[in-house]
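Sequence in, structure out.
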Amino acid sequence: MCARCKITILLILFCFSTNVQAQLKIEITEGVVGGVPIVVLPFVGEPTNVPRNYSEIIASDLAYSGLFYILDNQNFSELSTPNDKINYADWLANGAEKIISGIVDDSTLIVRLDDAVKESTTKEWKFSLKDNLIKTVSHYASDLIYEELTGIAGIFSTRLAFISSDRLGPKERKFYLNIADADGWHASAIYTSDATLMSPTWSHDYKRIAYVSYENNEAQIFLQVLSTGQRNNLSEIIGSAYAPAWSSDNNRLSFVASRNGNSDIYTYRFDNQEITQVTRSLAIDTEPAWIGNDALVFTSDRSGSPQLYSVSLSDGEITRLSFEGNYNADADVSTDKTKLAYISQRSNGFSVVIRDLTDDNELVLSFGGLDERPRFAPNGHLLSYITTQNGKSAIGLLTIDGALGELIPVEANNIRGIAWSPLIQQ
């Protein structure tokens, strides 16, 4: 992460109370200096009596991506809304390379993207507003704009799952499994428990979330159907287990179980209920993540300290992946299987590191000291993680090149565990 971004995060966190029950509310509005300069004009006819209107959400989304710099549209008040006879030179002279405008009526939203450098309209989209919330349409529009400008799928319509908790007394806590929009807004609990909840992970078809609950006085994996809220206790079949992870075809779930005194990696097949033991070691093997459908990355202390390894499911061959430092753990794999993100103990504490599997180059992305659980966004270009500063937990957001570091504005306490949904097909 660049020094500017590190300072930004520290200043933001310093401004909040160190009371662990304090809630965090931040909105990303400007993006990264040096990014493509874009002005998002107020849309004609959009509502003004709402927390955020269409243009505000789209501007925030594009800033959140880390690739754009959002210009203050007040600086363009003397220039007319773009039309077929727009004087692009005027907009370019005021610093805007891309111009986003829109028109809202009772049933439709029209969004237009203009390129001041090329002096032309790039694209125009029309959205039906029937039965669609402002945020839903806005995030979808942001996805299309982002993909048009970058060739990369947008993630603004995706969701975040995370665990939070409230302390109700000296020995009493309430735990929540939450889902929020990708920008941290509209967080709500889909399950509440007096028992500890951990490790949420989405199925790749978006239909279920697997997570760990200690409600029966042992670690058990539950599967919750998002459309109905129905919960199924998978541990009734596989026994006490934790650290679930879905295969990309949704037919298998890897997990960790401690049997015969050892912590090992297992897989479970949904089609035939087959349980397979993957690792057999006197060491602690944990935190599996899939690389394709035939291999797993996992954490093990078999070399004397926690390090990352891969295991082939076809022949059981195990390969050590990490060598830098005495602690490397909690890996996640990018959707294209070319990168690992993980936590590594460095001189400044526990930091997020990303490694390119094609050339083994690595980049230290965070410097929080107590960072944990890095997770790739489904397009592979952003990374979330849990960070702690002065006793306050928050969800951090990084671009994979370290150019932008921000906090996702989630209103929740004691955040632990986070997972991105897959890309949502519109």
